[in-house]
Structures are given as C-alpha cells and as structure tokens.
C-alpha cells in the first residue's frame, strides 16, 4: 500500500467517525451535543437568508424570508452527512484497492445509495460496500424519525404562544397582560396562567437545548414569537411583583425563575454570553420613561397598586436584570418581531405595539366604549 492510499484509509476512517458522532449527538442522544459539522451547516445555511432579510424594509417580509431557514437547515444537514459518508467511503475504497479515484467514487456511491450498478470482487472492499449500503438508508431513516419529535415539541411551544395573543396582544407585551386581565376582571386567573408558563418554559428549555434546531423555527404568524412571548410573560410577572407585591401570586416568582433559567440554557446552547449573576441595581437597557408608560397604561384600567412608580422601578429592575440580557440577545439573534420592551435588532426596525380590540356592546355595536385604546406610543 502506498503512502497516499494509506493516508486515504486513515482520513476515511476519521471522517466516518466524525460524521457518525455528529449524527448520534444530533439525532439520537437526548442532549445538546452539537458538533462542528452541524454548527458549520447552520451558519452556512443561515447566512443567505439573513443577507436577504436584512434588506427587507417591512418586518412581515423579513419574517417570510426567514421562515424556511430552519427546515432547510435540517435538509442541508442530511445532505451534508450523506456527502461526508460518500467522501469517506470513496477514500476507503480507493485506499484498500488498486482502482482509481473515479472508480472508487462510483463503487461507494453505488453501494451507499443501494443502486447496485457497480461492485468489487475484493473481500475487504466488499465489506466496505456492505457497510456503505447500510449507512445511507440508516441516516435517512434516523432523520425521518427525528422529524416527529421536532414538530411535536414545536406544536407544544406554539400552542401557548397562540393562546397568549388574547392575553398579551400581538405582538406580546408584558404590561398588556396585566392591563387586559384587569380590564375584564380576571386577575384571579393569573396564578394558573403563570403556573402554565412555568411548565412551558421548562419544556422549551429541555426540548430546545436537546434539539437546538428548534430555536430557529419561527411561529406561523409574523407578529408572534416564542422568545417575545416568554419575555412578555416574565415582564408581566416582574411588574406585578414590583407594583403590588402582596397581591401578586406566588406562581409569578416561580415562573420568573424558570423563565430566566430557560433563556440562559438556550443561550448556552447557542454559545451566547451573559452575566450569570447580575447585581439587582445594574442599569437596564429598558429606560425608566418606558416603565412609566407601562404604569400609566395600568392606571388607565385602575390596576391595584401598592407602590409608587419610583418605588416599584427599583424592584422591577431587580427582577429584569436576570433575563433582559439573555432575552435581548435571543430576539436579536432570531430577528424576532420588534415588540415593545424587546430590545434592538441588527437593522433598525419600527417598534410594534400590540393591537387592542374595540370594546363594543350589543345595544350599541357601532360605538367603541371606554376604556378604549389605540396603538400605545412608547
């Protein structure tokens, strides 16, 4: 065996091991074991979508451009794995036989894709052909089996994001959650609401770190986003605890804890940096004037308050420092809908406030009754 053929055998074995490890870590092991292969494919696939999206002026158009990116990344990853295995088996066949590189590629491809139009009589190469014939269908089958898990987790996530539309508006905004519950006198439903979102955050933390491709899957409607929805829920809980601590349900604290834990674990999966133990007196990116606007919104609906805005601000800031940085990093990374209190994006975008339905009565269906609100101006 020549030095070239020996090197090809060594390289082929190494490439088989690396590719198999990537497949096992991505599709089989229930843990976020990302490989350089999956990360590289994700970056390469994402780049052209981001390039086009950054040149769109309307957010709805940008969302439509970015929507196919995550599913196509899964397809690109499958093609990459198959291509790497094909290269690896070509190198092995070439190294263990006396045929040329083109013929080795022909034999490896024939075996791997079970076409059977070209085989070898050599015993060691025949064994490789059997291995290649098992590899191709196995990789495809594993990817197909992976899809139901992905879409089941996606559907669980989006169900609660859709339900949030009636409680927080679209796009979601934390103070709107409290205002709407007070407006229709259902503040007593908030404990169950926060309990459900605590479990939702735990589910998302588990599924999106085990299967990181889920992070980039966008909501079916452009003005909805899982990360903006979670941020709105956390802001509503922090605001409730800040302005009315004795009335706020204990479930709000538990939801906050699980919520910022979820955001941190997802940032870990994406390798985004954050402060794991921020001081409660750190400055926020959210400004005090914006906080006052939210307090004014709650005053309009006579929300019960126990603290002045100045007193509540310090407590709200102490809660928000735990999740503002991670939430803003994710909204920017995912190009989420530019909702109120959701940070900046890569390209400047007009901030969208939640639309509010008109309050009409049966006896006067053409009249909008107070309290009635147009688009909130931050």
What is the secondary structure topology, with strand pairs?
Elements: H1 3-28, H2 36-53, H3 59-66, H4 69-96, H5 101-112, H6 123-163, H7 165-168, H8 174-183, H9 190-210, H10 226-243, H11 250-270, H12 288-300, H13 309-320, H14 324-334
Helix pairs in contact: 1-4, 2-3, 2-4, 4-5, 4-6, 5-6, 6-9, 8-10, 8-12, 9-11, 10-11, 10-13, 11-14
Quick structural summary:
The chain is 64% helix and 0% strand. The chain is mainly α and 378 residues long.
> How would you state the average pLDDT, rounded?
89
Report how far apart the termini are. 74 Å
Following the backbone from N to C, one meets helices and strands in this order, namely HHHHHHHHHHHHHH
Number of strands: 0
| Count of alpha/pi helices | 14
Percent of residues in beta strands?
Answer: under 5%
Radius of gyration: 27 Å
Could you describe the largest sheet, including whether it forms a barrel? none
Unreliable parts: 370-378
Q: How many structurally independent domains?
A: 2
**SSE class:** mainly alpha
Properties at a glance:
2 domains; 378 residues; mainly alpha; disordered C terminus
